[in-house]
Amino acid sequence: MLANYPRERPGAAGPAPSGTAPAPARRSPQGCLKAVGALAGPHDDLRYPAICAKVDPEMELGVVIGSRARHLTPENAMRAVAGYVGFCDVGSRDVSERDGNRMDRGKGFDTFGIAGPWFVTADEIPDPHRLSIRSWVNGEPRQDGSTAEMLHSVPDQLARLTEALTLVPGDLLSTGTPLGHPLVKPGDVVRGEIEGLGVIETAVVADG
Predict the structure, then answer these.
(1) What is the spatial distance between Cα 166 and Cα 134, in angstroms, rounded to a whole number?
(2) β-strand partners of 84
């Protein structure tokens, strides 16, 4: 999910404490379908394609679908959720720009969807909108936010998706990312965590 977090925290020189950003005017949620081949494990290498110059990993809450669902409403959408995973949604800004700002190819490279390390069932996460999100590059803090900053809640996102799509068990909704996600290069080490869902750590390596 794109554009699901505030793009600035007014009056702050850096990331504000989790959940403290004023709510801006709600924009329509945006998103793209990610290639299945992009999926990678929580400690697999992040392969940096030769055609890319601006690659950024974004830590996001991943929502795992547990039942076939279409035409959900915000009131009943959570019944389709089996649980949650940490998800590092990687994209290539420059490839997307060259593609007329389309996101599918820029976000679809192999290893550009890093999931894990744990699948946690929905009953273990009472409120998915109150989880901290943090990331580091080479040990330096980058993201420090909270799912409380979402502009569009998980049930709202699921309702919007299922207006058009049938979701099936095992599908994963990536819900957007707070400020601070960096550009990386080969040789970097990316670490990210979602509260209660464990830690992802991946080395960035040149592809091929």
Answers:
(1) 31
(2) 63, 120
How confident is the model over 84-143, as pLDDT tens digits?
999 999 999 999 899 888 888 999 999 999 999 999 999 999 999 999 999 999 999 999
Distance CA 97, CA 68 (A): 34
Q: How far is CA 160 from the centre of its chain?
A: 17
Based on its alpha-carbon atoms, the radius of gyration of the chain, rounded to whole angstroms, reads 16
Contacts of 191 (CB under 8 A, 6+ apart): 135, 136, 137, 139, 199, 200, 201
In this prediction, residue 30 has a pLDDT band, given cuts at 50, 70 and 90, of confident
58 three-state secondary structure: strand
Tell me how far apart the alpha carbons of residues 53 and 76 are, in angstroms, rounded to a whole number. Answer: 42
Prediction pTM value: 0.88
**Burial class, 8, CB count within 10 angstroms (exposed 0-12 / middle 13-18 / buried 19+):** exposed
- The DSSP code for 123 is G
